[in-house]
């Protein structure tokens, strides 16, 4: 990671907030919806946020390749130090279209296949999560107050698990997984906010047994890991970003405690 992690984190936070402002301008006045080749929705807000983020990252002192959901073809691969920016300009486009406010801007710095810095901005909720290796994990609330966050740890015996799940993706595999977990309460939530609830100790676990891409998870994974949690595949391996040419993630679970 570049030398001054705290300064870089602040710079990326500013870029993500600017992208959030661009999204909110579209959110306020209405928009049309396109459908991409993979049948996922695309709005003017996705494009506007992408342009803000790419311009901002390119203006930083260190030139690091950018992999954005909205311009995959422009990505040239990690640099010689194994670094690249991983960007989802608008995560939770379905939530954006539904106008339920549960959408985010995600920017992560990947280094040797691991997310070492991440910023998640939820512009409609006026909430930001950010973290970097060696710096810590933080939440900025609607009043602008920045506080350190920590995952809750393993629930006490006899305590119901607090589970957060996808608002737009559920199915029999998830139901079967939850049956093995034990007594639990399930709260639906959109976008990468599910990771962030685990990171700040408001949820214990987030199982994702449905499709996601690298850019959906990188930034929020950095927040979870720096807050003391973990993100791993169903085989117990850390979710990796070492092969960005393969965009799809395997199924994974976000835990609010270490093994």
Structure report:
This protein has 259 residues and is α+β, with helices and mostly antiparallel strands. The chain folds into 2 domains: 5-148, Fructose-1,6-Bisphosphatase, Chain A, domain 1, CATH 3.30.540; 161-255, D-Maltodextrin-Binding Protein, domain 2 (3-Layer(aba) Sandwich), CATH 3.40.190.80. Helix content is 29%, strand content 28%. It has helices spanning 5-29, 44-58, 93-98, 172-181, 193-199, 214-226, and strands spanning 33-35, 41-43, 66-68, 83-91, 104-111, 114-122, 127-132, 136-140, 146-148, 161-166, 184-189, 205-208, 230-233, 252-255. Helix 1 runs antiparallel to helix 2.
Notable characteristics:
alpha+beta, 29% helix, 2 domains, 14 strands, 28% strand, 259 residues, D-Maltodextrin-Binding Protein, domain 2, three-stranded antiparallel beta sheet, globular, seven-stranded mixed beta sheet
